[in-house]
């Protein structure tokens, strides 16, 4: 295992360089740059060129990539944002924390609910409960999370108009009087604002993971060793949960590699619709403004987390399944 970990860590180095290099090329292939938005300034026609020179955008792309990569490797410095003129790390760090605050409990809630639902549907295949959960899952798979977020907003507005008070907030992560609240009040206020986006994200992922778990559980329960366990007189509970679930959950563990970067990559359109100040709104604004250093910082961090997540998945699989050896 130690030798395997050492080889994997060595493989991360060229993977990182190739991934960042390709990401930089893709960004450079987009027409224009940050200074292009000032090209049609009639009062100051030369403004765009001066901005391009001051930001170093007049240099060849490979030269700028080399300088950026050198700063990242030597000092973990992602550069200065072209939009805010501030340090990129200080700009994205609070957004990453906000996205983590939303996605971590939503992910935990999703798996805590989805795995038991999948096991229940597999053990009671074609029962009334299984059919009802199947219909629920198909509806969940068919509804995009942004549309579900819009439904939550519509429900909150209708409830407020009918009752005169807000059941759940559907905008931002704090109230206007957040600073005047006590420490406990601030904590409760954040939890209150967390309800709507967390439920939307959890319900969006619940359908797919529960169906995935059901399929894996059904496949395991059809194996020969499960029939042998039943023939030996073991109870259904022992067969299903000790032998069946333990092997079916291995595939779920293998997906940990994708969960780690998703915890800080933002909740996509949910953050945008519900005005949660996470990574996604910042990422979209940076793409629109072609703020290359902010974009590259986010892509680099997500690449590192994806590589680390895959490594953690392999280690977890070896710990759970004794048949896996590296």
From TrEMBL:
Q: Which domain of life is it from?
A: Bacteria
The answer to whether UniProt assigns keyword Cell division to this entry is no
InterPro entries in alphabetical order = BPD_transp_1_N (IPR045621), MetI-like (IPR000515), MetI-like_sf (IPR035906)
Keywords of the record, alphabetical order, are:
Cell membrane, Membrane, Transmembrane, Transmembrane helix, Transport
Instruction: For this entry, list what GO says about its biological process.
Output: transmembrane transport
Q: Which residues cross the membrane?
A: 9-27, 102-123, 135-160, 191-209, 248-272, 292-320
**ABC transmembrane type-1 domain span:** 96-313
Establish whether keyword Ion transport is in the entry. no
Membrane topology qualifier: Multi-pass membrane protein
Q: Mind telling me which GO cellular component terms the entry cites?
A: plasma membrane
The record, for Pfam families, names: BPD_transp_1 (PF00528), BPD_transp_1_N (PF19300)
Q: Where in the cell is it found?
A: Cell membrane
Main localisation? membrane
Gene3D superfamilies named among the record's database cross-references: MetI-like
List the PANTHER family hit by this protein, alphabetically: INNER MEMBRANE ABC TRANSPORTER, OLIGOPEPTIDE TRANSPORT SYSTEM PERMEASE PROTEIN APPB
Stated family: Belongs to the binding-protein-dependent transport system permease family.
Instruction: List the protein's name.
Output: Binding-protein-dependent transport systems inner membrane component
Q: Which organism is it from?
A: Truepera radiovictrix (strain DSM 17093 / CIP 108686 / LMG 22925 / RQ-24)
